[in-house]
């Protein structure tokens, strides 16, 4: 049995599917700065700021090209809600754990979780 050489560190190229160690909980810079904040934004919009999102969408649909002027109040409320959740350390920990769980499952199975689009 020959082992293949890789330019990636062992923890990123080993594992059952060659996708990395499923039990590794270290995070790369891109995961900390891009992937986890993206998950936080998606979860905040779909689970935490639902009423603000609906109000902003309704205002935009009703205002057409004047939405920039007419929907300032709704836009501010949505931004405030999203910012509050984005700065919530407990929410950040929850999203980080969810991200690590999804990454571990991907590394274990090789199957990516489908992305839900609104």
Automatic annotation (TrEMBL):
A Gene Ontology term for the protein's cellular component: mitochondrion
Pfam families referenced in this protein's UniProt entry, alphabetically: Cmc1
The keyword Disulfide bond appears for this protein: yes
Ribonucleoprotein recorded as keyword: no
Region described as Disordered: spans on this chain: 1-23
InterPro entries: Cyt_c_biogenesis_Cmc1-like
Keywords: Disulfide bond, Mitochondrion
Protein's cellular compartments: Mitochondrion
Similarity remark: Belongs to the CMC family.
PANTHER family listed in its UniProt record: COX ASSEMBLY MITOCHONDRIAL PROTEIN, COX ASSEMBLY MITOCHONDRIAL PROTEIN HOMOLOG
Name of the protein in its database record: COX assembly mitochondrial protein
Name of the gene this protein is made from: LOC113516282
């Amino acid at each position: 049995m020959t082992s293949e050489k890789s330019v990636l560190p062992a923890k990123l190229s080993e594992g059952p599917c060659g996708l990395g160690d499923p039990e590794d909980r270290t995070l790369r810079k891109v995961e900390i700065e891009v992937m986890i904040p993206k998950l936080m934004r998606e979860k905040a919009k779909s689970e935490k700021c639902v009423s603000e999102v609906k109000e902003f969408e309704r205002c935009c649909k009703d205002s057409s090209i004047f939405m920039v002027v007419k929907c300032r109040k709704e836009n501010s409320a949505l931004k405030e809600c999203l910012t509050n959740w984005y700065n919530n350390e407990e929410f950040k920990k929850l999203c980080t754990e969810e991200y690590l769980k999804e990454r571990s499952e991907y590394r274990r199975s090789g199957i990516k979780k489908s992305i839900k689009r609104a």
